[in-house]
Amino acid sequence: MSVKMPEPDQAVLSRRAAIVKALRTIVPGEGVIAIEREMKPFESDGLTAYRQLPMVVVLPETTSQVAAVLRYCYEEGIKVVPRGAGTSLSGGALPLADGVLLGMGKFNKIREIDLDNRVAVVEPGVTNLAVSNAVAHAGFYYAPDPSSQIACTIGGNIAENSGGVHCLKYGMTTNNVLGCEMVLITGEVIRVGGKHLDSAGYDLLGLITGSEGLLGVVTEVTVRLLKKPETARALLVGFPSSEAAGDCVSKVIAAGIIPGGMEMMDRPAIQAAEEFVHAGYPLDVEALLIVELDGPAQEVDHLIERVDKIARDCGAVSCKGSVSEEERLLFWAGRKAAFPAVGRISPDYYCMDGTIPRAKLPQVLAAMKDMSTKYGLRVANVFHAGDGNLHPLILYDANVPGELEKAEHFGSDILKLCVEVGGVLTGEHGVGVEKRDLMPAMFNDTDLDQQLRVKCAFDAKGLLNPGKVFPQLHRCAELGRMHISGGQLPFPDIPRF
């Protein structure tokens, strides 16, 4: 691997047989996988460029089993990597050679649907799309819809604070989760939030959402359900340049219009998606916007007219609106299939994830063209234009020596540019190992130490998902060290214990 992970603890590895035996008493039957070929499916997540076999895989079925596994690992000093469906694109679920991979796939039940309170209580292994399907008969749905929603799970959505094409109007996972049950590394089970809209005290739920498995293991989630809009229509708007499309995005938002979704694709992505899905995308344009307006029918018709005018004032060369629900879904099917579609035109691709201020879209897209020339690698752009969340797909061939490294450097330059223009390193894919060593581009040592203190409050031994997010590992005690000058402690008159 080209990323450096913590050195395996040889003392732990020497006890592997005893560890596997102990775990089998906690999770009997087929709940422990320790044979190398059977652990192969767990060696990476969606970021397949990096692979590592775990020491052992454990597949619990109950909260009490999760608590017992974590308590045992805490007492024995064994690292734990929680894993959902493995769709993470940042290496967040990359195993450790001396660690337990805790797979939550058997937590796949919907425990309660409460339409009166507009919530559902689900286990973390329930797929994102399954929640919407379970309540569709009553006219409800779960708003976050990442492109992998047919496979990705609610627990992983919480770990990475996933979004999707409709997050512009309806928010990310953090805006749609009301409560959770979580097991700490000590085996303690805590509950945060619930069916109520807000909780007193610190916003611990906001802290847990997006914590990438570093704070605990979620075993139950209460999600918000929304009523389906009366009407929803999508526009396909073609532009002669990506810069013109980016300008249109800014002007639509500046006009006070908040679409249900606003996505952008450039020529390589358009052509790949159209060949794959046949969604009716125009092939003679350099950039395509998919703009969805929803709400009462009369309002939607009015907003479509306004967006059409703004787009044409920005130089749009085509504008086509969906005339049926089937056509609207087809427009989105092309976008949601863009990642696998691009996989048909390149042996490998490296999917990036950074977020920028919308007004910087034209500048950043132009800079990415220059970077593409510099590195000699093609890039296909597919992203959530409405909130400035970029997903450049860097095309490369892992069988060509040096191409993966070039793709990594290309991606690093894109993310550094995102920060330079006022953006952030990630919008929804998380930091994981992919962006870990870029964190100093956005945060100074004081910032990172403060974040580590939060980690230490939950996991003082640093056993949960180590090697992710933070570029340098510190023992929690090291964060509290005081600077000594001239042999004197600061404020020597203060009693110390």
Automatic annotation (TrEMBL):
<keyword id="KW-0560">Oxidoreductase</keyword>
<dbReference type="GO" id="GO:0016491">
    <property type="term" value="F:oxidoreductase activity"/>
</dbReference>
<dbReference type="InterPro" id="IPR016169">
    <property type="entry name" value="FAD-bd_PCMH_sub2"/>
</dbReference>
<dbReference type="Pfam" id="PF01565">
    <property type="entry name" value="FAD_binding_4"/>
</dbReference>
<feature type="domain" description="FAD-binding PCMH-type">
    <location>
        <begin position="50"/>
        <end position="228"/>
    </location>
</feature>
<dbReference type="InterPro" id="IPR016164">
    <property type="entry name" value="FAD-linked_Oxase-like_C"/>
</dbReference>
<dbReference type="Pfam" id="PF02913">
    <property type="entry name" value="FAD-oxidase_C"/>
</dbReference>
<dbReference type="InterPro" id="IPR016171">
    <property type="entry name" value="Vanillyl_alc_oxidase_C-sub2"/>
</dbReference>
<dbReference type="InterPro" id="IPR051914">
    <property type="entry name" value="FAD-linked_OxidoTrans_Type4"/>
</dbReference>
<dbReference type="InterPro" id="IPR016166">
    <property type="entry name" value="FAD-bd_PCMH"/>
</dbReference>
<keyword id="KW-0285">Flavoprotein</keyword>
<protein>
    <submittedName>
        <fullName>FAD-binding protein</fullName>
    </submittedName>
</protein>
<dbReference type="GO" id="GO:0071949">
    <property type="term" value="F:FAD binding"/>
</dbReference>
<dbReference type="InterPro" id="IPR036318">
    <property type="entry name" value="FAD-bd_PCMH-like_sf"/>
</dbReference>
<dbReference type="InterPro" id="IPR004113">
    <property type="entry name" value="FAD-bd_oxidored_4_C"/>
</dbReference>
<keyword id="KW-0274">FAD</keyword>
<dbReference type="InterPro" id="IPR006094">
    <property type="entry name" value="Oxid_FAD_bind_N"/>
</dbReference>
